[in-house]
Amino acid sequence: MSARTPHPVKGRSGSRDSVPVMVTGLGLVLILLMLLLVLWLILSRGLAAFWPQRLERFELKDGTVLLGEIWERLETPEGGRLRLRVGNRELTGQDIILLDQSEIAAITRPRDAVLVERNENGVFLGWLDGLSGPGVEIQGDSPRLRRQLDLAVERVGELDEQLLREQERARRLSLKRGRWEEELERRQASPAGVAALQEKLDASALRLSGLERSLDSLRAAANLWTLRLNTADGSQSDLPLLQVVRWVPTNELGMLGRLRLYGRRFWGFLTEDPRESNTAGGIWPAMFGTVLMVLLMSLAAAPLGVMTAVYLHDYARQGLVVRLIRLSVNNLAGVPSIVFGIFGLGFFIYFTGGTLDAAFFPERLPEPTFGTGGILWASLTLALLTLPVVVVATLEGLGAVSRTTRMAALALGATRWQMIRQVVLPNAMPGILTGLILAVSRAAGEVAPLMITGVVKLAPSLALDGDAPFLHLDRKFMHLGFHIYDLGFQSPNVEAAKPMLFGTALLLIGIVLLLNLTAILLRNHLRKRYKQAAF
Amino acid sequence: MELMKPQVIERAALEETETAVLATGVEVWYGPARSVHGIDLRIPVRRVTAFIGPSGCGKSTLLRCFNRMNDLIPDCRVKGRIEVHGKDIHAPETALEDLRREVGMVFQKSNPFSKSIYDNVAYGPRVHGQSERQQLDGIVETCLKRVALWDEVKDRLKSSALDLSGGQQQRLCIARALAVGPTVLLMDEPASALDPRSTSRIEDLITELRDLYTIVIVTHNMQQAARVSDYTAFLYEGNLIEFNETRRLFTKPEHAQTNDYITGRFG
């Protein structure tokens, strides 16, 4: 661990060493170029994903009129093509189209065109033409309509939130009722308390139907609002305001307005649930799942790896067996991750989970509880996968603690365990953390083993929430790596998912970077504290 | 080889003092190789005894027998009987941790823990169950004063021991060894990695500590042995050639080999 590293002898210019210098340098340059290319691609596409584009009106030579955002300019021998997002999927069936430059007669940028972000069918591009709701009836675009629209969106948003809250209450109540009903069934044998329970059930049934009635009225109130829009080809469309997330007069926005919109979209991307089979909305559940899975994985891998390494390094009699074990551990790191996934499926899910179900949840069978993929099994599978990395790094860390330091502790009458715990492990901590950093990076980016141990395209609820017992280890979860795969290759609308795809990739890289950075800072801090003797 | 082994001479002066360490027929084997060939030796209480001899003569190996540090070396076996204050150190009822508390050790390379100065000295007492702050404060102060380090570090007891100079680190290691209250202190070339000034401070320290502890020091440096020790043992190829009062051994060695070594003809 000495700070003095030998400096390689540098070849002078003109020496016979110049060819190897060029060859090795070429390798470095190639690698750097590749890395820069990947970073540039993800950074530029990922950061641009939420940037509000201008809306352009295209008049084609055949008389068709389109309104769209230019997403990409493609070079072709015939003079180029444009990739346009025209939105309005429910009307045209296709929200992203390719347009030959040669077909275009004129392009204008209408100031009053608006973009409406919706919960369904992607965006709507067009012109405002009317708003109707309780006590409001406005025809044609006007500043008054726009003011009223803002108010109405806010009002409906509130109704929507209220709706969600009531839905959540109804859900919890039915959950509770389910438990009471189960208990009631069990108590039929011994009538004590049955009456009280039945009373509770009846009362809650009343409350539930009350909740449902209020849900219905909320929905009806929200559905009273509709927004009328004109499309580029002159037809009209009525949107229920409940579907509208926000409306943006993109072409009227200045730099500041666009930046603000960008920030809001990015924040929504981080904090919202995905919509429309993941092609819109946010990726909060995937981010949450990734971080929680990595945390659980670290909780399993770190102690197990450190314990293994301590035994191998300090307790086991050094010899052929230990050498063989070390060799196997090193090689285990090279086993394809899908193999670990299959092992996790067989051992954790089918065997362990199946046994747990038979022992503790027989009433739910054949519906599996732990006998199916879940965040616990995925974390444990990844812990197995990353264990070799932790073990090897810890072994190196333990080896870096000098023999004389160990001798000093033993010569003072410390037992071996006291020596390990109080002297060796603190000194080896930077090495152990290095291993954990590598493990975390690998686990955060791993997809293949997760696909068969519990990752899903869309998880109905997070693995950590307000329902007892709060941490639901049996739940399936979402993961950023799998999300990228899903968006890129499984999406019903790959073109529309592209911005989300690059945004997710950027975020995953960001999270890995953040995790690494934290661990590196922690390691450097510890290194300073536990620096090795310089004499 | 056996034939060449000379008789160990026990001087009258030696008989006067009590015995701290008594070794009878000590052999050390590294796998199939024997590096100490059956040594009988009596180390007197509260005196400084030096082991001298050329490299590889077994003096450090013999020293490590006294607190059973050789146990840590795989394939190393120690035969024969060693008593510390009359107790057999290999007896099953002797706990290794207690033996090492009785027989402290200072190593060639200073090896402070990467902890604070205070925690270095307090480590031993803590290991042996002392956790009262006041008691520990007292032990740390006494031990650091005993190695004449207190005045240099009393204002920065909480700073890292690794920030000390090499000589200070070695004195800290001695203080750390003293903190568990040993009666015997083994020193394995304690000054060989230090500059002359630090070396002389360590030597002064040994002279001061000899009234309180039985000190056994291994050294390459014959002047050092002559300066600090009361008794000297000369070892050669795993045999104890001569053991005598230092003054006599250096002025009138009884063996030709001892004479050759101290006059610098080999080694």
Please describe the topology of this protein.
The complex is a heterodimer of chains A (535) and B (267).
Chain A (H helix, E strand, L loop, with lengths): L17 H31 L7 E5 L4 E10 L6 E5 L3 H4 L3 E5 L3 E5 L5 E5 L5 E10 L2 E4 L3 H45 L6 H30 L2 E5 L5 E5 L3 E5 L6 H17 L2 E2 L4 E2 L2 H32 L4 H13 L4 H24 L14 H26 L2 H9 L4 H30 L2 H4 L28 H11 L3 H36 L6
Antiparallel strand pairs in A: 1-2, 1-5, 2-3, 3-4, 6-7, 6-11, 7-8, 7-9, 9-10, 12-13
Helix pairs in contact in A: 1-14, 3-4, 6-9, 6-11, 7-9, 8-9, 9-11, 10-11, 11-14, 13-14
Chain B lengths: L11 H5 L2 E12 L2 E12 L3 E5 L6 H7 L10 E9 L2 E2 L7 H7 E4 L10 H11 L5 H14 L3 H4 L12 H13 L5 E5 L7 H14 L4 E5 L3 H7 L2 E6 L2 E7 H6 L4 H7 L5
Parallel strand pairs in B: 3-8, 3-9, 6-7, 7-8
Antiparallel strand pairs in B: 1-2, 1-4, 4-5, 9-10
Notes on the structure:
The complex is a heterodimer of chains A (535) and B (267). By secondary structure, chain A is of the alpha+beta class. Helix content of chain A is 58%, strand content 13%. Chain A has 14 helices and 13 strands. In chain A, a hairpin with a 2-residue loop joins β7 (124-133) and β8. Helices cover 36% and strands 25% of the residues of chain B. In chain B, α4 crosses α5 and α4 runs parallel beside α7. Chains A and B meet through α10 and α11 of A and α3, α4 and α7 of B.
